[in-house]
């Protein structure tokens, strides 16, 4: 089985479905609610597991009840959490997410800034047996740790380059593949135009570069040429976590030996199916669904 | 030890401290956050336990992770949860609470309406050994069950009469003591003026009647005469759950054999101290603090 080593954040989202976005200091009743795991790296790990890969997640969590929920949920998904570290006295991240009937979202996030970002503990236990690496920019030290392991073992090392990118300069240098979000690429290069941004970014790193832009699809540099892959046209009802899921599937594709172009198509299918279902990453399909979808859209 | 039997709701509040109340469908960062148990009956049970009583709580919860958190938190407080029933497939209640720097609150609550309100299972296990009963109006069938037990055992039976009171008519008839909130009394009688409201309510029940009105203190009917007890003057920073805590301490006072007037003074002290600390019911004092406070304010 293909093993993907992933470093970054894992959180819990308390998602409330509301008729209208609450605006006043009053009491509101939610129509429905869901407690859904979230966080870039954790969402990617779930996508890897559901697509038939082995996902090993390294993350910083508090030794608290929220952390227990986060780990239990990931383990239910088959994600290997043995590289997650629980910090005594630390508090795990959680968010309140309101989704109104128009699909608009409001997110209020809590993050414990007292949990150390240091990743020397991860350097000491990071495995050498894996097929690809994925890291997010929410924990730059962890990203550097696993991307160094990818280099040392000559495996693909993918960075999910979401803004803000300040602090992730080393991770960008270490990655073999940098997949920017549109906002991440603009933040990194100061260029509004994505093609100009990719060209500007190519001056600063030797990594393979692409940018994901939601419904607009994916653009990348193919030996200096600008190539694009349009997103699959689906009836999107929930885009929460779609980018994270894309990154997980893309890293899995590379780990399985797919070319970048094949992995883009594969990841775009997994993310597209996810968007057709409510409930964040709970809508990630399994491998069979993805294969059927790809056959249909051939 | 004095035992108080309590029926009603138990929830978890995810409380976010924010600079300004979020109003737009955007991403916000909380300054701080706390996961605090809540719910009228559960808050009252914690107040009883911290004041040295034995609190036995009957409540309806889902057999889910939120329910596990609610029970674990209450058991940490020494509350006896053996009368709580967990419903397979049911989802426990939780809320998102935003508190801004001005102390304003916005609450979005989720409640699973599919969990049965029926309390026949409680009738079958309700104990006969207790010193007083307390019930809230969020579970009228449970209130009737424990207030019937209070009648059968000639013990005080207190109803925390919060609006809406529709559905709690039987509980009001069964209670020996009805403690209205100002909103609850207005909802029950249609009278804006609280003195007129108490007089009107007295025509509909033989119970001892009072109304709690936050900073304005407590008013009650003393053999037809209108009596008042002003709230203790404190620097209130968080009034979340203050009413629930008041009711728990009041029921404990009656269970200990205090007169109504003594129990009002005692409960008002416990609630006042709670309001001087941030974090909902986590600010409830212990008995020693309450005694010291009462000595000082003599």
List the helices and strands and how they pair.
2 copies of one chain form a homodimer.
Chain A: E1 3-7, E2 11-18, E3 27-29, E4 32-38, H1 40-50, E5 54-58, E6 60-62, H2 65-76, E7 85-87, E8 94-100, E9 105-110, H3 120-125, E10 132-136, H4 140-152, E11 157-161, H5 169-174, E12 177-181, H6 182-189, H7 194-202, E13 208-212, E14 218-222, E15 225-229, H8 242-255, H9 260-275, H10 287-296
Parallel strand pairs in A: 1-5, 1-10, 2-8, 6-7, 10-11, 11-12, 12-13
Antiparallel strand pairs in A: 2-4, 8-9, 13-14, 14-15
In short, what is this structure?
Chain A has helices spanning 40-50, 65-76, 120-125, 140-152, 169-174, 182-189, 194-202, 242-255, 260-275, 287-296; strands at residues 3-7, 11-18, 27-29, 32-38, 54-58, 60-62, 85-87, 94-100, 105-110, 132-136, 157-161, 177-181, 208-212, 218-222, 225-229. Chain A is of the alpha/beta class and 298 residues long.
What does this entry look like structurally?
Two copies of one chain form a homodimer. Chain A has helices spanning 40-50, 65-76, 120-125, 140-152, 169-174, 182-189, 194-202, 242-255, 260-275, 287-296; strands at 3-7, 11-18, 27-29, 32-38, 54-58, 60-62, 85-87, 94-100, 105-110, 132-136, 157-161, 177-181, 208-212, 218-222, 225-229. Chain A is built from ten helices and 15 strands. The first copy, chain A, has one domain (3-19, 32-296): Ribokinase (UDP-N-acetylmuramoyl-L-alanine:D-glutamate ligase, 3-Layer(aba) Sandwich), CATH 3.40.1190. The first copy, chain A, has an eight-stranded mixed sheet with strand order 5-1-10-11-12-13-14-15, sandwiched between helices. Chain A has a four-stranded mixed sheet with strand order 4-2-8-9. A two-stranded parallel sheet of chain A has the order 6-7. In chain A, 52% of the residues are buried. The longest helix of chain A has 16 residues, at 260-275. The A-B interface holds A 14, 16, 18, 21-30, 32-33, 35, 65-66, 69, 72, 91, 94, 96, 98, 100, 104-111 and B 14, 16, 18, 21-30, 32-33, 35, 65-66, 69, 72, 91, 94, 96, 98, 100, 104-111.
């Amino acid at each position: 089985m293909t093993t993907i080593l992933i470093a970054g954040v894992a959180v819990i989202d308390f998602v409330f479905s509301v008729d209208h976005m609450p605006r006043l200091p009053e009491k509101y009743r939610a129509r429905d609610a869901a407690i859904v795991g979230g966080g870039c790296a954790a969402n990617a790990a779930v996508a890897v597991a559901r697509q038939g890969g082995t996902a090993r997640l390294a993350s910083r969590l508090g030794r608290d009840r929220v952390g227990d929920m986060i780990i239990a949920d990931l383990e239910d998904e088959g994600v290997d959490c043995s590289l997650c570290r629980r910090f005594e006295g630390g508090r795990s991240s959680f968010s309140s997410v309101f989704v109104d009937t128009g699909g608009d979202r409001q997110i209020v996030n809590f993050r414990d800034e007292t949990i150390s970002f240091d990743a020397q503990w991860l350097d000491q236990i990071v495995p050498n047996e894996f097929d690809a690496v994925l890291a997010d920019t929410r924990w730059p030290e962890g990203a550097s740790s696993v991307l160094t392991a990818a280099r040392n073992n000559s495996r693909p090392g993918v960075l999910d380059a979401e803004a803000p990118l300040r602090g992730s300069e080393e991770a960008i240098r270490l990655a073999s593949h940098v997949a920017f979000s549109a906002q991440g690429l603009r933040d990194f290069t100061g260029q509004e135009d994505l093609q100009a941004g990719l060209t500007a970014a190519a001056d600063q790193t030797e990594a393979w570069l692409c940018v994901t832009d939601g419904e607009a699809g994916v653009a990348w540099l193919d030996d200096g040429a600008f190539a694009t892959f349009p997103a699959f046209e689906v009836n999107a009802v929930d885009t929460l976590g779609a980018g994270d899921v894309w990154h997980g599937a893309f890293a899995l594709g590379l780990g399985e030996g797919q070319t970048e172009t094949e992995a883009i198509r594969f990841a775009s299918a997994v993310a597209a199916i996810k968007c057709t279902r409510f409930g964040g990453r709970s809508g990630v399909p399994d491998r069979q669904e993805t294969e059927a979808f790809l056959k249909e859209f051939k």
